[in-house]
Give the backbone structure.
Amino acid sequence: MGNRAGRSDFEWVYTDQPHTQRRKEMLAKYPAIKALMRPDPYLKWTVTAMVLAQLLACWLAQGLAWRWLFFCAYALGGCVNHSLTLAIHDISHNTAFGTGRPSRNRWFAIFANLPVGLPYAASFKKYHVDHHRYLGGDGLDVDVPTYFEGRLFCTPARKLLWLALQPFFYTLRPLCVHPKAMTRMELCNALVQLAADATIYALWGLKPVVYLLASSLLGLGLHPISGHFVAEHYMFLKGHETYSYYGPLNWITFNVGYHMEHHDFPSIPSCNLPLGRRKGHEAHGVPDWRTRR
């Protein structure tokens, strides 16, 4: 567990990210893909049901012993809250109400944020635009671990710790790598979240609030669903920066595994990404990450 990683630096590439050019080529060859760029009619209902389910769980958490509260937070709440963060990812591309209603999408993302316990949605959208525009760009794409992280978490045991602390690095890294001024929507997000947390505390006490926070921290940390953090953009094959996963976890993660397809066509909602893959399969020439050796 103490062996250090063989690499001592990042893989530096001096060409533009490939998705923009591939998008042009695929649309020229498969114009029918444009028909998939429409709002997901079921997303708002699915997210609403998930938010209500977590509110019900909060009510039930009042009577739980602490050990069972944390067990439920990991086994149940962690799955729901992680899935909600991926729904927020989908909504950040205006897939709930369409590109013509950006305000509705932003406020709905704040609604989806409520069970997460901490304000997340507005800040995520602000930085996620850069992730698509400057994929892997030094100092621009805050999804890329810092040099400090790479140097410190260089053994299997430390990497395990890094995975467990993923929510903290995901939150703090933008503030260190590419800080931006707070927006009005971020302030609204924070106020709405604070009001929701305070209401839950006033109605049902401390345990439901701890349940929501533990669900987010555990579900986004060392959790089976969190594998997509590593699978999406860590270089398993030289020359390829984006990978897809087509397994069953996509059923509960809004098809986040279709990540090659998502970066090629960010305007396609998650429900249509499998259709996009079938339409342009030969253009997505990189097999999913499970086949890597």
About this structure: Residues 286-293 have pLDDT under 50 and may be disordered. The chain is about 55% helix and 0% strand. Residues 66-91 form the longest helix (26 residues).
